[in-house]
Amino acid sequence: MNAPISSSRSPPLTHGLGGYIFPDLLEYLKDNRKCVIYCATIELCWRVYIYLLRQLPPGRERLRRVRLYHAMCWPDENEETVRMIRDDPQCQIVVATVAFGQGFNIRVLLDSLMVGVPKTVAQTLQQAGRVGRDQSSNGRAVIFVQSSAYKSAEKYLAQDPARRAQAKHNNKSLSTMNNEKALMLSTMECLIAFFNKLYDNSGETSRLDCIAAKRRLPCSNCRPQFIGPLFFPPSPLPIGAPPLAAFTAVDKPPLPSSTTTSGAAKQARKLTKAMRATAETELRLFRERVHRYERDRVSHGYTPASSYFPNPAITSILDHFLAISTVDNLATIVPKWKHRDRHGSALLELIENLQGTFARDLEAARLQKKAANRAKAKAKKRHADESDDEMVEEEDEVSEEEPPAAAPSKPATRKRSALEDTTNEEPKPKRPRAPLLSAAAVAESFRPQYTTRTRRRPDQENILH
User: Fold this and answer.
1) What is the pLDDT of residue 87?
2) Phi/psi of residue 303, each to 5°?
3) C-alpha angle 24/30/33, rounded to 5°?
4) Spans of biased composition, class Acidic residues (predicted)?
5) Measured between alpha carbons, how far is 184 from 149 in angstroms, rounded to an integer?
6) What does pTM read for this prediction?
């Protein structure tokens, strides 16, 4: 395996595979290289596809830039996707299942991004081999690994080899793990040398790491020892063609969050239901003030009051209420609020006043709860002491009035039969068992208990006589 491909495992994903956001992909997609994104299921394909569309500006061009390829698409639609990724410079991304890796030779593909670890090492290499077929280009294959996959690999290798099959059967997290896959996830040696050893590939440099073999592109394990920059240029565009639109979430500033780590502090940074209702009421009153101030600035009076401070903006502020401390935080949380320049300072002042009120209420509630717990503990201790004193007094009275009781005699040991009646009631006399009937008597009991009558015609009676 000496193709010009940089094989790498990404750091553990910052998001799960069951959600609807995949920001780790954007770090590679912003390079504007033609790539295929492999997903394990069609349902995951759809979630990744919808997420990428939402990161691009509205319009039909995003449907041209991002395409789907899986077995549920119409055959002519899949053929059109293959044609576009090969010939259309504006088509950059194909979100596909493993079906895209069978029988294609698309030399313009540069990146292979695998969302989640494939089932086998062979499938991993097959998906990585879709790119880098042009020897003059720098291909890149990246596996986005969940942190749980690393843990499962360590747990699998820690098992006794003779018991790994049983461990896979008993542990659901190990059901998709195998020996080669676990070694690939846990190895610290050169990934390319690992694959060459696994498949017994020949060559003078096949068993050497990327630095010793002087490969043009190192793997992720050899990258720290690699000297020099790595270049992954974008896919070329025709002269005069418009540049590809940037993904909006690539350089999006993070939302403000609490810097505390303790559980109690995290709980304190979250609004209670009563506090949220109070803050929402105050924000709606603030919207009315903004409406009264701004309505004279418009040329008509038909603009609804809710448009001056929309409900989605109020909800976003409530979700991050206790983490807001500057106007920049407001710009991050409500970037599309058009009255922020004139009313942002007043809104921040209102939020800070409410934060102070909530902080005092939380502290008072904490002290009240602490005092109640202290009083409860004292009452419990006092009750326990009084109970001990009463027990001591009762023991003293008994010892003075009554002589010591004789030691109880040892009961006779007798093993009780399993079906013996242990109740204190008198046993009821058993009814005599009914005699067994013969087969003829049983058959007779199923017959009718009355005599059947047969009505004969006169001519039949003459015949009988």
Assistant:
1) 93
2) -75, 125
3) 110
4) 386-403
5) 11
6) 0.55
